[in-house]
């Protein structure tokens, strides 16, 4: 359907643009008509929306911290290309998580306003690490805290009246927040996000375990070898 | 007499050359290593054993700033994409265009970091100049844009990124770094800017009717198909 559709579209565009050339004195009309759509179908409640919006920043802060780790291990004096590659990958994954959360909210009819507040200048938590194992340990802490945040969102979206800040559970825009159990979002976060979190945490814990055992007596060669393993 | 003068001249040249060799050897990694090896010291001041050469080091601050600008722009494009992805705006073509620009800025930031560290530099995440792109003195950037405004904003952003690359190129005077900037950034900028300018010209001429809803719809379809291909 797409080639036929595209050619029809191009034809129509051509027809319109020729008519546009003949009437080039006409003013620009940038404001388009807005559609009249019922809001009934937009059912996410405020405390839940707020928790999801916060999570986007949490994911991006993690992403920036991983990016700083990648930059650190790329340095000529540090020279751990395996660690750097691992953390570049993690930085991309966290950014993808933030985008997935945005896409979910768009699907549910959210994010039609206050877009500018969505991303609040995320910066790395730290920018230098003493060793590969110390960075991996911080990565595990970071993932653990992300997991806890997601669990909190699940709790709030399942039962919005449990929102810690009482102001959050007050309905704005007349949206009733109490007792709206957001089954679909909870299932999505549990199935997609928590699943990945727990598997990622296990992987990090395993890496730390292997590396940390070697560090005490064979620090230099242990980290060197493990870096090459990460590169493979 | 003439012979004596010549001898003195030769002796002078030799003396100067050997003095230079001594001074220069202090810039060698080998020099650092042989000192610390013979002294048997634990950790030497191996200040020359690094990847630094040429003039790239003189623009590392600007490079850090360039990385940070790319990160900021990447997030801004992501928000523009988000706006056009909402059910109210519902322009999948624009959503996709800005998402691609966001991904590109993000990947460029990583690529720059890799190149900085290749040249013995260090990425400084704190070094960032003020965002000069926001209109006038408005502190807060608005993302609820109309379609044509979105294209205009993107065109401005891409031009400012191109200009920053030119300034870096001018200042660095390092052939390797400049070659990298040309190949990885400057060439691509020309294409992106030309594409965006073309889109802006098209959409402008299409928006001159009393109601541009149909034109913008068709243009968005065209964008989506083009970017999906």
Automatic annotation (TrEMBL), chain A:
SUPFAM superfamilies: Ferritin-like (SSF47240). Residues 1-23 form the signal peptide. Fe cation binds at residues 59, 94, 97, 143, 197. Residues 42-215 form the Ferritin-like diiron domain. Transmembrane segments: none annotated. GO terms for molecular function: ferric iron binding; ferrous iron binding; ferroxidase activity. Keywords: Iron, Iron storage, Metal-binding, Oxidoreductase, Signal. It is an enzyme of class 1 (oxidoreductase). The keyword Metal-binding applies. It holds the Pfam family Ferritin. GO terms for cellular component: cytoplasm. This is Ferritin. Belongs to the ferritin family. GO terms for biological process: intracellular iron ion homeostasis; iron ion transport. PROSITE patterns: FERRITIN_LIKE. Stores iron in a soluble, non-toxic, readily available form. Important for iron homeostasis. Iron is taken up in the ferrous form and deposited as ferric hydroxides after oxidation. It comes from the Eukaryota. InterPro entries: Ferritin, Ferritin-like, Ferritin-like_diiron, Ferritin-like_SF, Ferritin_DPS_dom. Its EC number is 1.16.3.1. PANTHER family: FERRITIN. It catalyses: 4 Fe(2+) + O2 + 4 H(+) = 4 Fe(3+) + 2 H2O.
TrEMBL record, chain B:
Fe cation binds at residue 108. The keyword Transport does not apply. GO terms for molecular function: ferric iron binding; ferrous iron binding. Residues 53-207 form the Ferritin-like diiron domain. InterPro entries: Ferritin (IPR001519), Ferritin-like (IPR012347), Ferritin-like_diiron (IPR009040), Ferritin-like_SF (IPR009078), Ferritin_DPS_dom (IPR008331). PROSITE patterns: FERRITIN_LIKE. Residues 1-19 form the signal peptide. GO terms for biological process: intracellular iron ion homeostasis; iron ion transport. Keywords: Iron, Iron storage, Metal-binding, Signal. It comes from the Eukaryota. Stores iron in a soluble, non-toxic, readily available form. Important for iron homeostasis. Iron is taken up in the ferrous form and deposited as ferric hydroxides after oxidation. Belongs to the ferritin family. This is Ferritin. It comes from Frankliniella fusca.
């Amino acid at each position: 359907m797409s080639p036929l559709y595209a050619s029809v579209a191009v034809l129509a565009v051509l027809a319109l643009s020729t008519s546009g050339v003949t009437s080039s004195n006409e003013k620009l009309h940038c404001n388009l008509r807005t559609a009249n759509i019922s809001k009934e179908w937009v059912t996410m409640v405020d405390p839940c929306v707020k928790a999801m919006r916060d999570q986007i920043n949490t994911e991006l802060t993690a992403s920036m911290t991983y990016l700083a780790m990648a930059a650190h291990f790329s340095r000529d004096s540090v020279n751990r290309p395996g660690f750097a590659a691992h953390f570049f990958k993690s930085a991309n994954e966290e950014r993808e998580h933030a985008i997935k959360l945005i896409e979910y909210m768009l699907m549910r009819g959210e994010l039609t306003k206050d877009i500018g507040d969505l991303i609040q200048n995320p910066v790395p938590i730290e920018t230098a690490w003493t060793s590969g194992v110390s960075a991996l340990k911080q990565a595990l802490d970071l993932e653990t805290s992300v997991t806890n945040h997601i669990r909190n969102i699940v709790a709030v979206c399942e039962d919005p009246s449990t929102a810690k800040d009482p102001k959050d559970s007050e309905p704005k825009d007349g949206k009733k927040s109490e007792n709206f159990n957001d089954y679909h979002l909870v299932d999505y976060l549990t199935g997609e996000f928590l699943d990945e979190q727990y598997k990622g945490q296990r992987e990090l814990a395993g890496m730390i375990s292997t590396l940390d055992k070697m560090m005490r007596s064979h620090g230099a060669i242990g980290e060197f070898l493990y870096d090459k393993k990460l590169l493979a | 007499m003439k012979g004596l003068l010549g001898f003195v001249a030769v002796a002078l040249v030799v003396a100067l050359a050997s003095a230079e060799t001594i001074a220069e050897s202090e810039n060698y990694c080998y020099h650092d290593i042989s000192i610390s090896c013979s002294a048997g010291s634990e950790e030497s001041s191996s200040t020359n054993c690094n990847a630094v050469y040429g003039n790239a080091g003189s623009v590392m601050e600007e490079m850090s700033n360039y990385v940070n600008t790319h990160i900021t722009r990447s997030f801004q494009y992501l928000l523009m994409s988000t706006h056009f992805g909402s059910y109210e705006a519902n322009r999948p073509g624009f959503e996709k265009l800005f998402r691609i620009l966001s991904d590109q800025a993000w990947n460029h930031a990583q690529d720059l970091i890799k190149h900085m560290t290749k040249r013995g530099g260090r990425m400084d995440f704190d070094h960032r100049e003020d965002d000069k792109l926001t209109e006038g003195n408005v502190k807060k950037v608005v993302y609820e844009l109309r379609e044509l405004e979105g294209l205009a904003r993107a065109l401005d952003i891409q031009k400012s990124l191109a200009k920053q690359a030119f300034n870096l190129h001018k200042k660095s005077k390092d052939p390797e770094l400049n070659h990298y900037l040309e190949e990885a950034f400057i060439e691509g900028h020309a294409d992106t800017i030309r594409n965006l300018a073309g889109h802006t010209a098209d959409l402008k001429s299409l928006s001159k009717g009393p109601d541009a809803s149909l034109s913008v719809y068709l243009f968005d379809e065209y964008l989506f198909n083009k970017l999906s291909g």
